[in-house]
TrEMBL record:
It comes from Sulfitobacter donghicola DSW-25 = KCTC 12864 = JCM 14565. Residues 3-110 form the Beta-lactamase hydrolase-like protein phosphatase-like domain. Residues 150-266 form the FAD/NAD(P)-binding domain. GO terms for molecular function: FAD binding; hydrolase activity; quinone binding; sulfide:quinone oxidoreductase activity. This is NAD(FAD)-dependent dehydrogenase. Gene3D superfamilies: FAD/NAD(P)-binding domain, Protein tyrosine phosphatase superfamily. Pfam families: BLH_phosphatase, Pyr_redox_2. The keyword Disulfide bond does not apply. The keyword Hydrolase does not apply. Its cofactor is FAD. GO terms for biological process: sulfide oxidation, using sulfide:quinone oxidoreductase. Keywords: FAD, Flavoprotein, Oxidoreductase, Quinone, Transit peptide. It comes from the Bacteria. InterPro entries: BLH_phosphatase-like, FAD/NAD-bd_sf, FAD/NAD-binding_dom, Prot-tyrosine_phosphatase-like, Sulphide_quinone_reductase.
Length: 557
């Protein structure tokens, strides 16, 4: 007997025996639901036999037999009713536990999010892919799926999604393409660091989504609830179904603000800010501009995160502003990094360390933010140094810039497309899914070991487009991705350390050293970041103009 927990009040299991009853009682269960019809197997005890033994141990038993593969909507309703009437915790069982898990999943539809239901059943070892449309439909069998069908469906209209759509349209104008995204506004997120440094205005970093979707591409303004890759289908909220010939998955990642206790309540107040949100980046500059003395903490969570340099960019631009105003000597800068190094590619560290020293910043490695009390101006960090027990430390602050923990979106993490860590599982060269050969992914959501930056998506989009076109034409993958990513580290107003690298930390500079030496602070790199990259993004990348992003051809050995 293997008991698997779905919630604090309900667990499911395979067939149980009367001899298991003492163990079931010892585990704290007060009731049982039998979902296996009597006589289904030659070796199973009847529900009456189970009930008689359970009664000796003070455990109630209910009988709701379900024929394998035939869980009806009414069955789920009845299961829920029994759960509310019986004393808990409850153990439900059938031959393997799948029918019991299915009944719970359908009964919880509309009460819990689809992602939460799928996460609970997946963690218990049960795949609810076969009933996902019913879960999305509030636990009821859909009567009209209203299917739409496209040659290519793209999930996510961020930098990667729109760029991929434009690149595909440029290669095959007659492709029927749909982009699925519920957002009204598209953001140029690399600009938020500059907003927090008082250089850009917020409105420079946003445009309406409708103005950016490529001409001839259908925009489905909806959220994705689940994937059915075996059926070449994407299930939307409301249980609408979109079918595809080929699928591109690029919804970005999830900023998990709630993972830090007390953070959500104080964001935007009490000196707590973040450049990772459009509405908070101006508050960063307000705090920096008004600060004359005190302690400023800048945090970085465990990897992976989007733009791994962004947390320290905020520190450098703030330090530069205080240096220019002559108040730096009265400000205590603390950079609390959950990791063990300042930057993952060692070639750029010496230049960055010069600025750490210039701003007299303290580097606190292995410090992970776990809680904050905004009104009290206190934060708590778990310090997990190698070969040492975890220690929780308290730090007071006057200003704190927070980079939130990040993960794959919930609907990706629980999908068949995800690897064990929740990211879309792709071949790192072709960006094609390892299991489903008509699925590709790019951007922050996939599991290739590259930096999660907009510059990476700019290179990835043509690779995906090239390989999808090759696939349509019946050919092998034509392009490969070398892991390129770029992080323009704004070390002071007017100078940038332009880090460009690929898989394994290999340096991949775009310019000759006499133009931009990426290992040194450069005014040319600042000009690129401030003046050139925004129009390259809006007018180049999102329009399918692959400037300096020509796909690298697959090497035939």
């Amino acid at each position: 007997m293997k008991i698997r927990s779905l919630t604090a009040g309900l667990s499911v299991s395979e067939q149980i025996l009367p001899s298991d009853m003492q163990a079931i009682k010892d585990a704290g269960f007060r009731s049982i639901i039998c979902n296996r019809p009597d006589g289904e197997g030659a070796d199973q005890p009847t529900c009456d036999e189970i009930a008689k033994e359970a009664a000796k141990h003070g455990i109630e038993v209910a009988y709701l037999p379900i024929v394998a593969g035939k869980v009806t909507d009414d069955n789920a309703t009845d299961f829920n009713k029994i759960l509310t009437e019986q004393p808990g915790p409850t153990l439900a069982y059938c031959r393997t536990g799948t029918r019991s898990a299915t009944l719970w999943s359908l009964g919880q539809a509309g009460q819990k999010s689809v992602a939460d239901i799928l996460a609970a059943t997946k963690a218990a070892g049960y795949d609810m892919g076969g009933v996902v449309r019913r879960i999305v439909n509030g636990g009821k069998t859909p009567t009209d799926t209203g299917d739409a069908s496209f040659d290519v469906v793209i999930v996510g209209a961020g930098a990667g999604g729109i760029a991929a759509a434009a690149s595909l349209k440029g290669r095959k104008p007659n492709l029927k393409i749909a982009v699925i995204d519920p957002a009204d506004v598209h953001y140029y997120q690399p600009g938020w660091t500059m907003v927090g440094g008082g250089i850009f205005e917020p409105q420079q970093t946003s445009r309406t989504m409708g103005s950016l979707i490529p001409r001839g591409v259908h925009w489905i303004k909806s959220a994705v609830a689940a994937f059915e890759p075996e059926n070449n289908a994407v299930v939307l909220d409301g249980c609408r179904v979109v079918k595809y010939g080929r699928l591109i998955v690029c919804p970005g990642l999830k900023l998990d603000w709630n993972k830090i206790e007390g953070l959500v309540e104080t964001l935007g107040h009490n000196g707590v800010t973040s450049n990772y949100r459009y509405d908070l980046a101006p508050y960063t500059w307000e705090l920096v501009n008004g600060m004359k003395e005190g302690r400023a903490i800048f945090t970085q969570p465990p990897m992976p995160i989007k733009c791994a340099g962004a947390p320290q960019k905020a520190m450098y631009l703030s330090g530069d502003a205080w240096f220019r105003r002559g108040v730096l000597k009265d400000i205590d800068i603390q950079f609390n990094n959950a990791g063990g190094v300042l930057f993952g590619v060692k070639d750029y560290v010496p230049a960055l360390m010069e600025y750490v020293q210039k701003y007299d910043a303290n580097l606190n490695f292995f410090h992970n933010l776990v809680a904050v009390d905004g009104p009290a101006k206190k934060a708590w960090f778990d310090v997990a140094k190698p070969d040492a027990p975890v220690e929780r430390v308290e730090m007071e602050f006057d200003m704190m810039h927070v980079c939130p923990p990040q993960s794959a979106p919930d609907f990706i993490r629980v999908s068949p497309l995800a690897d064990a860590a929740g990211w879309v599982d792709v071949d790192q060269a072709t960006l094609r899914h390892k299991t489903y050969d008509n699925v590709w992914s790019l951007g922050d959501v996939m599991n290739a070991p590259n930096a999660k930056t907009a510059a990476a998506a700019r290179i990835q989009a043509p690779v995906v487009a090239e390989n999808i076109v090759a696939d349509i034409d019946g050919k092998a993958p034509a392009a490969q991705y070398n892991g390129y990513g770029s992080c323009p580290l704004t070390v002071e107003r007017g100078k940038i350390v332009l880090a460009e690298f690929g898989y394994g930390g290999t340096m991949l500079p775009s310019f000759p050293k006499f133009i931009v030496d990426g290992t040194k602070p450069s005014r040319a790199a600042w000009f690129l970041k401030e003046k050139m990259l925004p129009p390259v993004y809006w007018m180049g990348m999102l329009k399918g103009r692959e400037w300096m992003a020509k796909p690298e051809k697959v090497t035939v050995k």
